[in-house]
């Protein structure tokens, strides 16, 4: 079982910056927030972990690599051409990459996104709590 803890105070303080609230309205907003969050759905996903670049590491076309990563084929081609994702081989003018290379890039991109989101959250906390 997982427990989610949430302080409604900062949200109410943001509202108070824009609207004058009576004590009753303040309490009603807090109750509503708690009620909404009690009915929130949390989804957890397990991701498959594969051994890096082994015998069973699949060779993917740019189309298949893009589908795996959830990006467009032209963007995947740009990532390969710029060296962000390692090129495995070129067949004519077609690029091939290893599945493990795409997974490594995806993990690095998610780490970068997580850092950016953490910085944003810190900035928002500072804005909310400094008022």
Number of strands: 3
- Separation, N- and C-terminal Cα atoms: 36 Å
Q: Which strand-content bin applies to the residues? A: 5-15%
Low-confidence stretches: none
Helix percentage range = 55-70%
H and E order: HHEHHEEH
Largest sheet: 3 strands, antiparallel
What spatial order of strands do you see in the largest sheet?
1-3-2
Average pLDDT metric:
82
| Silhouette | elongated
Q: How does the helix and strand content classify structurally?
A: mainly alpha
**Rg measurement, Å:** 23 Å
**SS summary, helix count:** 5
Secondary-structure blueprint of this entry?
Layout: H1 9-18, H2 23-38, E1 59-61, H3 62-69, H4 73-81, E2 89-91, E3 94-98, H5 99-129
Antiparallel strand pairs: 1-3, 2-3
Helix pairs in contact: 3-4
Attribute tags:
3-stranded antiparallel sheet; mainly alpha; 56% helix; 131 residues; elongated; 5 helices
Description:
There is one protein chain. 56% of the residues lie in helices and 8% in strands. The chain is mostly helical and 131 residues long. Strand 2 and strand 3 (94-98) form a beta hairpin. The radius of gyration is 23 Å and the shape is elongated.
Précis, in short:
The protein is 56% helix and 8% strand. By secondary structure, it is mainly alpha-helical.
């Amino acid at each position: 079982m997982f427990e989610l803890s949430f302080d409604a105070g900062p949200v109410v303080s943001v509202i108070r910056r824009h609207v004058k609230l009576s004590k009753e309205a303040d309490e009603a907003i807090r109750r509503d927030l708690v009620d909404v969050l009690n009915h929130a759905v949390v989804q957890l996903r397990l991701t498959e972990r594969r051994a890096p670049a082994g015998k069973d590491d699949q060779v993917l076309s740019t189309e298949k690599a893009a589908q795996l990563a959830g990006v467009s084929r032209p963007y995947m081609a740009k990532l390969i051409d710029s060296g962000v994702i390692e090129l495995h081989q070129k067949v004519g003018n077609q690029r091939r990459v290893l599945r493990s290379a795409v997974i490594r890039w995806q993990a690095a991109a998610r780490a970068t996104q997580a850092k950016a989101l953490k910085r944003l959250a810190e900035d928002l906390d500072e804005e909310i709590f400094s008022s």
